[in-house]
Known about the structure:
Elements: E1 14-16, E2 19-20, H1 55-62, E3 67-70, H2 76-84, E4 87-90, H3 95-102, H4 106-123, H5 126-139
Parallel strand pairs: 3-4
Antiparallel strand pairs: 1-2
Helix pairs in contact: 1-4
Amino acid sequence: MTGGxxxxxxxxxTDGPGQRTFPHAAQxxxxxxxxxxxxxxxxAPVEVRTPVIPSKILSIIAAGRPVVAAMNLDxxxxxxxxxxxxxxxxxxxxxxxxxxxxxxxxxxxxxxxxNGRRYAEEHLSLDRCVAQYQALLQQV
Length: 140
């Protein structure tokens, strides 16, 4: 599966070329998939446009490096990058915006990298993931 595509089997209504919308995701459910752990108590439900975040983004965040991503801006990748305050997203096929994002000053790059590492430690660690699964399974 590549970025922007829906899951195999075409689950979910088509939202546009190469995109799928999963209205059940706001309740933590995607037909044919495990429940979304991204829905947190006390936060407004968020409609999931693409239930996939490229693993390279997670690796970059965990490494404490700033993320510069040229991708569809309404997906989960840009949402994660904004939530973690760890990088910049630009629309695909916009070389000028990409060049401007890459040429940011060194202090901003360092700050974004630190933010990403902190976010990974707080939200993506093995202990945090295990705790989320335990909480999920206790609800069943």
